[in-house]
């Protein structure tokens, strides 16, 4: 058994629990700050953690973090500032305008202080700051790649003193890249065939009936 | 769970790189399923006693939820705030988002209410990919036939044909919104070819993916699009606890519980689109689950109560390879990719016991048999069999680092190196094959109510092919969104009387059938969430305080 505290409340739980399971095991109500419950993809279970003997408070995902003796945990409210970057994918013009659009939608991005706050905050260990700087420089593919495994937990957004919202910038770049450049030939061809009404479904084909 | 062979002993019997013989097996597939698959056998189903499906077979634990009383009564909503909208979408997974985006684009005012936070869903957890027949060696016809066959010909041909034909347009729609897909050659986005994988049970390579987190890529794009869409009002942390009906038996909106403010809100809507996903978190048959925290089958309970017909309620998918150990990750999914790449399953005696690439139900039943007959492996109180990733790596050096990236991450979370130590796996409750019966627009038997996604039934028959769920949710989601937005704004539907009259009729039915009124559903959260709506909302005098003001 391990003793830890969550939101100031002492809990005693089996050592093999994640922080989320610790709350469940301790009989606490758990109806927010949870989603995928262990896969680490939904980015909901954001916590601040201080471990025994560690002077720093660190960010983590509660479903992926095992409890430790003496650990202190606080959940983070989901942080959505009222003003956010607004855009519509279908109103962005063609890809020649990409750099201008990045600057318009995310004007703060070029003010990055290189403080590394976003990197420290990221529970997935992504090079967030590099991704931001690459986006500003127009290196879109490289920037998009940085955010490949981003789970949109918004911890970097919470950390950024310049209100850049790095993960949303990363997603913006990714979306632009896909919607403005991805045109696979096989998909184009099949779409054209369907438009011409070529492949119709035959409900009476032998393969559409159960074998007798 | 049954006990098994101690882990250390099993480790001694297992040799990395060895090719253990497969145990000869006399048992036929039907007998294996009958003996060990939870969908079969004598305790697999009961007959429903109330509702439109009276007399139909249903999984017993699930039947208890379907035949329960409502969470609320008239008095609880008497003073509730009333809001009106054109379209109410319930559920913030991929299906709900696709429906909401389409309805808003068609000019409807949309409210999207979801239980947790937008995107907290099964959709974000999908790994493998999405089907669409784009290859030159493939066709919508093949997709159609493969899907029907895999579903044991219980699917609705009309719906399956529509989904197969929609496939390419769905991929185009997702790309236009900004979703990426893997290409054969990543440097050729213009005019290259989509990378295709072959799902178990299909006749052509048809799975399109983004890495091995396709659902994450899809969901973060859909979520951003919904959040930035001015036509959609988003209500996070607002589970729906009951539907509203009018005098004509139409669905007229829903009762939402706002977890933040602890109050009920009545939403009147011209159309309601239900997209609340599956029921894995009900832990049917006491199984672990791969599903997200909110997958408690709420929409099915509510749709049934208001009179919509359900189908295939006794057919669920148990994925063979859930994590068995460590306990804190139990139920988590190890994708089929590991087995299709050649990873074998080994029991505590060091034997192979099944052809790993058989359909999911067969492999799952085989694992359950090993565990039931004492040949499973026990570690830290958990029982399972080995998924032999070290031998896979030895035979294909580099495969874990290059092709099975998520698997490597997963092993790290389990506290081991996938190249050195096998996983311990046990079947996990994964998917609801059936659901609310729908037509081609997602319309249910109840006017005004649409059903989309895992909650809807009729496409996958009694078994779903990998990759068809992600296609189904967007295909039907877009159609339901368009149909709902096209409902005429005749005023009458919004201003007539609406309430929970159907609940009163339901209570009479329950009483007549001798069923108790104190069993309530939908459950909203798993039991271990320690959530009690009555206590949380302060309903009734003398309610116990538990559930109010937890530390979270
Ligand atoms: C681990 C895993 C891997 C998978 N891999 C694949 C794959 O590779 N390919 C594939 O095709 N399919 C896959 N599937 C299946 C597929 O992901 C799902 O079937 C599909 O995403 C369901 O989408 P949905 O929109 O219907 O439901 P969900 O995405 O589950 O969304 C349901 C939403 O409704 C909300 N909700 C629930 N109850 C209420 C309520 N009372 N009020 C308001 N909101 C409510 C939930 O919080 C959630 O936001 C996988 C599933 C899992 C769990
Ligand atoms: S980049 Fe930001 S939002 Fe994405 S995982 Fe890292 S901290 Fe979370
Ligand atoms: S936190 Fe903001 S300012 Fe600091 S490095 Fe990251 S993006 Fe730049
Ligand atoms: S619950 Fe989804 S990331 Fe932790």
Written overview of the protein:
- The complex is a heterodimer of chains A (212) and B (552).
- Chain A is of the alpha+beta class and 212 residues long.
- Chain A folds into two domains: 2-75, Ubiquitin-like (UB roll) (Roll); 89-179, Fumarate Reductase Iron-sulfur Protein, Chain B, domain 2.
- Chain A contains eight helices and five strands; from the N terminus they run ββαβββααααααα.
- Chain A has helices at residues 19-25, 98-105, 117-121, 128-136, 140-146, 155-159, 166-181, 185-195; strands at 2-6, 9-13, 46-50, 58-61, 72-75.
- Chain A has a five-stranded mixed β-sheet, covered by helices on one side.
- In chain A, a hairpin with a 2-residue loop joins strand 1 and strand 2.
- Chain B has two domains: 5-36 and 320-429, Succinate dehydrogenase/fumarate reductase flavoprotein, catalytic domain (Flavocytochrome C3, Chain A, domain 1); 74-315 and 433-485, FAD/NAD(P)-binding domain (3-Layer(bba) Sandwich).
- Chain B has 18 helices and 21 strands.
- In chain B, a hairpin with a 2-residue loop joins strand 15 (377-379) and strand 16 (382-388).
- Chains A and B meet through helix 1, helix 7 and helix 8 of A and helix 6, helix 7 and helix 8 of B.
- Flavin-adenine dinucleotide (FAD) binds next to helix 5, helix 8 and helix 15 of chain B.
Can you tag this structure with a few keywords?
heterodimer; A: 212 residues; alpha+beta; Ubiquitin-like (UB roll); Fumarate Reductase Iron-sulfur Protein, Chain B, domain 2; B: 552 residues; alpha/beta; Flavocytochrome C3, Chain A, domain 1; FAD/NAD(P)-binding domain; 2 domains; 6-stranded mixed sheet; 18 helices; 31% helix; globular; binds flavin-adenine dinucleotide; binds iron/sulfur cluster; binds FE2/S2 (inorganic) cluster
């Amino acid at each position: 058994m391990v003793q830890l505290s969550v939101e100031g409340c002492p809990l005693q739980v089996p050592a093999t629990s994640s922080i989320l399971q610790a709350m469940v095991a301790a009989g606490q109500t758990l109806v927010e700050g949870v989603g995928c419950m262990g896969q680490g993809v939904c980015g909901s279970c954001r916590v601040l953690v201080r471990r025994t003997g560690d002077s720093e408070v660190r960010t983590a995902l509660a479903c992926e973090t095992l409890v430790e003796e003496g650990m202190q945990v606080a959940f983070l409210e989901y942080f959505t500032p009222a003003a956010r970057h607004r855009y519509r994918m279908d109103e962005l013009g063609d890809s020649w305008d990409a750099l201008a659009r990045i600057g318009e939608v995310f004007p703060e991005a070029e003010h990055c202080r290189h403080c590394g706050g976003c990197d420290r905050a990221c529970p997935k260990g992504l090079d967030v700051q590099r991704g931001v700087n690459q986006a500003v420089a127009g290196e879109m593919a490289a920037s998009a790649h940085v955010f490949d495994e981003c789970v949109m937990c918004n911890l970097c957004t919470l950390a950024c003193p310049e209100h850049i919202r790095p993960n949303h910038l990363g997603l913006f770049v990714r979306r632009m890249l896909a919607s403005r450049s991805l045109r696979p030939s096989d998909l184009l061809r099949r779409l054209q065939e369907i438009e011409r009404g070529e492949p119709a479904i035959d409900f009476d084909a032998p393969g559409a009936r159960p074998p007798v | 769970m049954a006990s098994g062979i101690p882990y250390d002993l099993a480790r001694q019997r297992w040799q990395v790189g060895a090719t253990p013989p497969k145990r000869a097996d006399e048992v036929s597939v039907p007998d294996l399923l009958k003996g060990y698959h939870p969908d079969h056998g004598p305790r697999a189903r009961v007959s429903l006693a109330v509702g439109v499906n009276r007399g139909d077979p249903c999984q017993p634990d699930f039947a208890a939820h379907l035949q329960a009383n409502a969470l609320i009564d008239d008095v609880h909503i008497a003073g509730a705030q009333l809001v009106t909208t054109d379209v109410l979408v319930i559920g913030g997974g991929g299906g709900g988002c696709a429906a909401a985006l389409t309805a808003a684009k068609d000019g409807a005012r949309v409210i999207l209410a979801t239980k947790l936070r937008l995107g907290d869903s099964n959709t974000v957890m999908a790994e493998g990919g999405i089907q669409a027949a784009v290859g030159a060696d493939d066709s919508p016809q093949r997709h159609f036939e493969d899907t029907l066959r895999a579903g044991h010909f219980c699917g609705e041909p009309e719906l399956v044909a529509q989904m197969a034909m929609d496939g390419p347009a769905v991929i185009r729609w997702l790309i236009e919104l900004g979703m990426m897909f893997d290409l054969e050659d990543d440097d050729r986005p213009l005019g290259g070819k989509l990378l295709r994988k072959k799902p178990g049970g299909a006749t052509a390579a048809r799975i399109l993916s983004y890495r091995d987190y396709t659902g994450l890529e899809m969901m973060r794009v859909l979520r951003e699009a919904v959040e930035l869409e001015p036509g959609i009002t988003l209500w996070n942390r607002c589970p729906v606890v009951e539907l509203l009906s009018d005098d004509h038996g139409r669905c007229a909106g829903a009762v939402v519980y706002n977890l933040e403010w602890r109050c009920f809100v009545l939403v009147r809507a011209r159309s309601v689109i239900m997209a609340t996903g599956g029921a894995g978190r009900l832990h049917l048959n006491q199984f672990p689950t791969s599903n997200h925290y909110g997958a408690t089958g709420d929409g099915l309970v509510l749709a049934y109560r208001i009179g919509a017909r359900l189908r295939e309620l006794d057919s669920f998918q148990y994925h063979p390879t859930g994590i068995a150990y460590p306990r804190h990750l139990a139920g988590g999914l190890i994708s089929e990719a590991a087995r299709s790449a050649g990873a074998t399953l080994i029991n505590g005696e060091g034997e192979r016991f099944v052809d790993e690439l058989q359909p999911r139900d067969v492999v799952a039943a085989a694992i359950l048999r090993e565990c039931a007959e004492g040949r499973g492996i026990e570690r830290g109180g958990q029982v399972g069999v080995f998924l032999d990733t070290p031998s896979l790596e030895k035979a294909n050096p580099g495969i874990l680092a290059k092709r099975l990236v998520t698997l490597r991450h997963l092993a790290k979370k389990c506290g081991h190196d996938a190249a050195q130590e096998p996983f311990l796996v046990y079947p996990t409750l994964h998917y609801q094959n059936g659901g609310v019966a729908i037509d081609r627009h997602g319309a249910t038997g109840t006017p005004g109510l649409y059903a989309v996604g895992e909650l809807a039934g009729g496409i996958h028959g009694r078994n779903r092919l990998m990759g068809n769920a992600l296609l189904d949710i967007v295909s039907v989601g877009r159609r339901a969104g368009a149909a709902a937005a096209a409902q005429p704004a005749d005023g009458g539907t919004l201003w007539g009387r609406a309430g929970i009259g159907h609940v009163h009729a339901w209570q009479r039915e329950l009483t007549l059938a001798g069923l108790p009124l104190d069993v309530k559903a939908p459950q909203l959260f798993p039991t271990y969430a320690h959530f009690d709506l009555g206590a949380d909302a302060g309903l009734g005098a003398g309610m116990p305080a538990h559930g109010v003001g937890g530390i979270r």
